Recover the amino acids of this structure.
């Protein structure tokens, strides 16, 4: 009983132990903060990667792509309806974007998608701005520009389909604070979501002649919008339906630029996409799959012998049915692809067969493995580094306990003279160390968790003092806010390590205390 | 005839002081009967404190044996010896040796806590506190029970140390210069207290260099250069 009693009493009375508690506290808080931010960064990265790809990705990593993708999709639906939910082809290539009304140009990655299917295989739909408020109005097909008009009181009104969609959204989201702020008033510009052109004659709608019709493009939100640093919101400079000029370079099968050279196409801004991954939002433009296929000459092309080349796609994205093991799914689809390819081996050109041979069937995680593994290693490295730094706390505890043992030598003699064993005396100091660890771990866990939860508010407060104090730049770190999720299991592990480390820190002084010869201790001055 | 409670047989002890060997005890033999009040007298450096430490199993002799209640203390394991020291022997030191972080009552309770495990303590705590209060009252510190040692006078501290030594009802009380750090009047009070305890049957071995203190004992053993030179009844 005396061990517990003296441990608690020393914890209360030995003020020097406060320094040990503080060192454990700071170390635990530091490791929790670093681990949570880095872990959150990794989790967000994984979540976004998965959200922007799909469960399984089939890709041959060439700009020429691979043929017979549609046949394979149909084969998948036929042969494995138990695991395949949806599959969609994607084309990616590179080009230049220019807004018609300006000389602004930017190199972009052009992604050809079947919008409805693409939305079904991943979270892309949730990244669309206009589609959120005006559901159903975003399309990649031919379209006119929408105009705002005015009612009899000169209050701005949207085209009918936009008004209906916005009304539907506001009914479904009565708690949306922004909607309450967007109060429309007479003789004022439209305050609601998005930027629209104005028909000063009064009627809202879609206007223009056949020449004004152009296919839609969804543009990554960092490409055309300006971010307001204070709020993190985007200022939509360009209006919905503004003309965006895309310049692309179609390649021949042999990988050379086609004889017609670059192709310039006019598109209309249908929406902007904010996936919250900077590398995507800063470069990607999405157009209709079939159109891009045509523009890039990846659609069937007439051959000199009268035959046709097969249509090609860069990627196939496949989502699996709920509950299907993703690795198992990848294996089955991979085997199916090999069977499919071998079946076609004597019917396709040698070049097409080679393109098909280069195809990899991967899970989303395997596809991103290099990037994810790098961040994962970084996280382990940084956490380990801070863990090593935390060893300082163990040494500090050792030093402090050594001092306490020296100071308490006579007390140790007294305790031994009344019958306490060497192990019992050692246990007092080990328990004292563990108690220091428990107290430091609790304080560190609470303060670390609170810091992580409010880390973005803390940064915002620092930025309000001085803009140079911004430590997390969304441009650099891909995400617009610092990850602020604290994982209970990780906190418990960190606390357990801190408690054990504190016990270890106190161990050597405790053993020394246990070995103190009582007669010598009682004579100790 | 009273039963022998403790007997030292030909106890020898030497210390290594650098390269020199210091012979402290040269074959000391002494018996202490149950209920006896024995004084061990000697000048400073005569080996009396070393002898007391060996009698109380705090120190180990280089040769010889100490038999307590028929059991050779140094043939026992450390744990068994610690158990005897906890339950059978009470120590009183010249410099009191109270734990400064604890109150008088807590200091007195500490040997009881050492004797009990963490599981049995909750059920015994009430009784143990009650007994500790009784002993604190017995030594005249009832009103000082919640005071810390630094808030007490020298005499009060020694009374607290006596109370601590008595809490486990030991059969043997070993006192090392219990009045050595006190003024004559306060020292007399402590000696009266010890004499009173002895009257109630408590066996006491007191180490002292002071003849007046030794006169409280029934028997006085004189130690010189690590050897017993006199063994006299003082009654």
């Amino acid at each position: 009983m005396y061990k517990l009693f003296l441990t608690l009493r020393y914890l209360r009375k030995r003020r020097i132990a406060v320094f040990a508690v503080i060192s454990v506290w700071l170390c635990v808080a530091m490791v929790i903060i670093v681990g949570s931010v880095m872990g959150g960064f990794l989790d967000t990265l994984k979540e976004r990667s998965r959200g922007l790809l799909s469960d399984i990705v089939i890709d041959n990593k060439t700009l020429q792509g691979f043929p017979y993708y549609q046949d394979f999709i149909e084969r998948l639906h036929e042969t494995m309806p138990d695991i395949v939910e949806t599959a969609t082809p994607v084309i990616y290539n590179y080009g230049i974007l220019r807004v018609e009304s300006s000389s602004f140009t930017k190199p972009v990655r052009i992604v050809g998608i079947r919008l409805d299917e693409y939305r079904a295989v991943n979270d892309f739909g949730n990244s669309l701005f206009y589609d959120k408020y005006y559901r159903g109005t975003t399309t990649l097909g031919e379209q006119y520009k929408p105009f705002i008009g005015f009612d009899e009181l000169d209050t701005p009104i949207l085209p009918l389909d936009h008004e209906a969609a916005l009304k539907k959204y506001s009914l479904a989201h009565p708690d949306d604070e922004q909607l309450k702020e967007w109060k429309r008033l007479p003789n004022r510009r439209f305050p609601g979501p998005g930027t629209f052109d104005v028909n000063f004659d009064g009627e809202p709608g879609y206007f223009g002649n056949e020449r004004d019709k152009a296919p839609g493009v969804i543009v990554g939100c960092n490409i055309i919008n300006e971010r307001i640093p204070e709020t993190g919101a985007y200022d939509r400079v360009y209006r919905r339906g503004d003309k965006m000029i895309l310049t692309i370079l179609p390649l021949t099968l042999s990988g050379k630029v086609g004889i017609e050279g670059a192709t310039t196409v006019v598109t209309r801004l249908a929406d902007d996409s904010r996936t919250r991954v900077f590398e995507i939002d800063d470069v990607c433009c999405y157009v209709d799959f079939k159109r891009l296929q045509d523009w890039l000459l990846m659609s069937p092309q007439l051959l000199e012998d009268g035959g046709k080349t097969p249509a090609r796609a860069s990627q196939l994205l496949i989502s699996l049915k709920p509950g299907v093991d993703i690795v198992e799914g990848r294996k089955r689809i991979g085997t199916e692809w090999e069977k499919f390819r071998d079946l076609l081996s004597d019917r396709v050109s040698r070049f097409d067969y080679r393109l098909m041979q280069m195809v990899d069937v991967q899970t989303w995680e395997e596809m991103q493995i290099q990037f994810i593994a790098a961040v994962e290693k970084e996280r382990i490295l940084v956490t380990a580094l801070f863990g090593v730094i935390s060893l300082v706390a163990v040494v500090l505890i050792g030093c402090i306990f050594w001092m306490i043992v020296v100071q308490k030598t006579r007390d140790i003699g007294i305790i031994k003279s009344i019958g306490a064993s060497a192990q019992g005396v050692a246990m007092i100091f080990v328990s004292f160390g563990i108690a220091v660890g428990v107290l430091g771990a609790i304080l560190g866990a609470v303060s670390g968790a609170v810091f992580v939860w409010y880390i973005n508010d803390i940064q915002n407060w620092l930025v309000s003092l001085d803009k140079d104090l911004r430590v997390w730049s969304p441009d650099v770190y891909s995400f617009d806010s610092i990850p602020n999720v604290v994982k209970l299991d990780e906190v418990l592990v960190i606390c357990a390590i801190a408690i054990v480390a504190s016990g270890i820190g106190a161990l050597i002084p405790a053993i020394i205390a246990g070995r103190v010869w009582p007669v010598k201790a009682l004579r100790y001055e | 005839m009273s039963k022998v409670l403790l007997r030292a047989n030909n106890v020898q002890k030497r210390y290594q002081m650098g390269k020199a060997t210091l012979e402290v005890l040269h074959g000391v033999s002494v018996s202490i009967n149950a209920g006896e009040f024995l004084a061990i007298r000697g000048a400073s450096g005569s080996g009396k404190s070393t002898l007391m430490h060996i009698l109380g199993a705090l120190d180990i002799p280089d040769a010889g044996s100490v038999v307590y209640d028929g059991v050779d203390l140094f043939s026992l394991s450390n744990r068994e010896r610690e158990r005897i020291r906890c339950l059978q022997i009470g120590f009183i030191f010249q410099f009191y040796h109270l734990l400064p972080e604890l109150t008088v009552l807590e200091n007195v309770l500490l040997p009881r806590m050492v004797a009990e495990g963490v599981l049995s303590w909750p059920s015994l705590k009430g009784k143990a506190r009650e007994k500790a209060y009784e002993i604190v009252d017995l030594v005249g510190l009832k009103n000082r029970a919640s005071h810390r040692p630094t808030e007490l006078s020298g005499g009060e501290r020694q009374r607290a140390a006596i109370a601590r030594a008595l809490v486990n009802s030991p059969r043997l009380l070993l006192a090392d210069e219990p009045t050595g750090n006190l003024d004559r009047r306060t020292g007399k009070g402590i000696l009266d207290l010890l004499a009173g305890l002895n009257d109630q049957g408590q066996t006491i071995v007191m180490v002292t260099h002071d003849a007046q203190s030794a006169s409280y004992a029934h028997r006085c053993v004189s130690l010189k250069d690590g050897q017993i030179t006199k063994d006299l009844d003082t009654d």
User: Anything to note?
Assistant: The first helix of chain B runs from residue 48 to 55.
